[in-house]
Design brief:
The protein is α/β, with parallel strands linked by helices and 342 residues long. The protein contains 11 helices and 13 strands. Strand 2 (26-31), helix 2 (38-48) and strand 3 form a beta-alpha-beta unit. The structure holds nicotinamide-adenine-dinucleotide and uridine-5'-diphosphate-4-deoxy-4-fluoro-alpha-D-galactose. Uridine-5'-diphosphate-4-deoxy-4-fluoro-alpha-D-galactose binds at residues 84, 86, 124-126, 176-178, 197-199, 202, 214-217, 228, 230, 268, 291, 294.
Length: 342
């Protein structure tokens, strides 16, 4: 199939492009490079030995979307493009609602016009907000608490309504837990702008000496060591999940939500300890106040994805840290500074 991947040069998108190409699909990417580098797709070509057609542009540019759908026989869309920083979304809600929601509306409108009704959407475990119990299963009521999370929840609802209006739509809503790690080649990985917000990129930059010490946000949560617990999932496992979801949307109409997580929760200090084993030296850290808005524990019930998509995460925490570290070591300053070595 010819798959349009929006946001395909980003962290999860680039890993998914590899799995799509390896599975024999043709891949067309649209990305405005607002949070990624064109080098990522050069690396994808290098890893797979296959071509990716790239449109450098914005999802908000309807004319460009029309061009893409008229120039290419697109069979299905995997929709990653979006802004994703929770803190920034609180400060700049209009930017997030406009980019994420208007972008999705335009995309779906053009898909409808060109008779393409199959879409796999990047949602997030953040749509669950704070729930009373874990593991989190797909039937729980959604209660996102920040503008970023609300864009995901609203887009899920918009896609539900599209499907009610036109039963030809076939939609997978993939609720990712905490994607970490990198492709085993060390050629592609997560390349955050500025100081990382997320735990694993922060740790890798401390380990490489780029940052001084990790700040652990709180150690008084009701967890086994007091630090926050999350369901970390290897980005390559996540990428495989998109292949399975794609196969499913081709076969089944309607809207289906799936958790993509391992079902296992690790604390911040568990992750620090796994990383220390990988690099063979201590990660300096200090305990600081909890981060506003953080929840104590989040991990998935991944059984629906296992039963309906025949998908299950296979890579453990050690492998996630090992692969994240290989990427960091090989590309200490991310993509842009490594252009000569591509
Ligand atoms: P990313 O920022 O690396 O990738 C997103 C890509 O979309 C970037 O390359 C960016 O340049 C592009 N983009 C953004 N707005 C665009 C627009 N208007 N037009 C064209 N391109 C645009 O992020 P990621 O970690 O790969 O996340 C991919 C998706 O998964 C996002 O929708 C994100 O919200 C979602 N998600 C990510 C996580 C996570 O922790 N990484 C967790 C849950 C959900
Ligand atoms: N943490 C620290 N220090 C840091 C960074 C994080 O102690 O410097 C802790 C957090 O308090 C939390 C855990 O590490 O307990 C994980 O934090 P992340 O920021 O890596 O991830 P979150 O679970 O907060 O959020 C991530 C994405 C969201 C997404 C969510 C669910 O950032 O966009 O996973 O998928 F919605």
């Amino acid at each position: 199939m010819n798959i349009l991947v929006t946001g395909g040069s980003g962290y999860i998108g680039s890993h998914t492009c590899i799995e799509l190409l390896n599975a024999g699909h043709t891949v067309t990417v649209i990305d405005n490079l607002s949070n990624s580098s064109h080098v990522a797709l050069q690396r994808v070509r290098k890893i797979t030995g296959k071509e990716v057609k790239f449109y450098h542009g914005d999802l908000l540019n309807r004319q460009l979307l029309e061009t893409i759908f008229s120039q290419n026989q697109i069979d299905a869309v995997i929709h990653f493009a979006g802004l994703k920083a929770v803190g920034e979304s609180v400060a700049k809600p209009f930017l997030y609602y406009h980019n994420n929601i208007t972008g999705t509306l335009l995309l779906c409108d053009v898909m409808e016009k060109y008779g393409v009704h199959q879409i796999v959407f990047s949602s997030s475990a953040t749509v669950y907000g704070a729930q009373k119990t874990v593991p989190l299963s797909e039937e729980l009521p959604l209660q996102a608490t920040n503008p970023y999370g609300k864009t995901k929840q609203m887009i899920e609802e918009i896609l539900q309504d599209l499907s009610i209006a036109n039963p030809k739509w076939s939609i997978a809503l993939l609720r990712y837990f905490n994607p970490v790690g990198a492709h085993e080649s060390g050629l592609i990985g997560e390349d955050p702008n500025g100081i990382p917000n997320n735990l694993v990129p922060f740790i890798t930059q401390v380990a490489s000496g780029r940052l001084q010490e990790l700040k652990v946000f709180g150690n008084q949560y009701k967890t086994h060591d007091g630090t926050g617990v999350r369901d970390y999932i290897h980005v390559v496992d996540l990428a495989y999940g998109h292949l399975r979801a794609l196969e499913s949307v081709v076969q089944n109409n309607g809207v289906h939500a799936y958790n993509l997580g391992t079902g296992i929760g690790y604390s911040v200090l568990d992750v620090v300890s796994a990383f220390e084993q990988v690099i063979g030296k201590p990660i300096p850290y200090k305990i600081v106040d909890p981060r506003p808005g953080d929840i104590a524990v989040s991990y998935a019930d991944p059984s629906k994805a296992k039963e309906e998509l025949n998908w299950k995460a296979t890579k453990g925490l050690y492998e996630m840290c090992e692969d994240a570290w290989r990427w960091q070591k090989t590309n200490p300053l991310g993509y842009e500074k490594e252009i000569q070595s591509v």
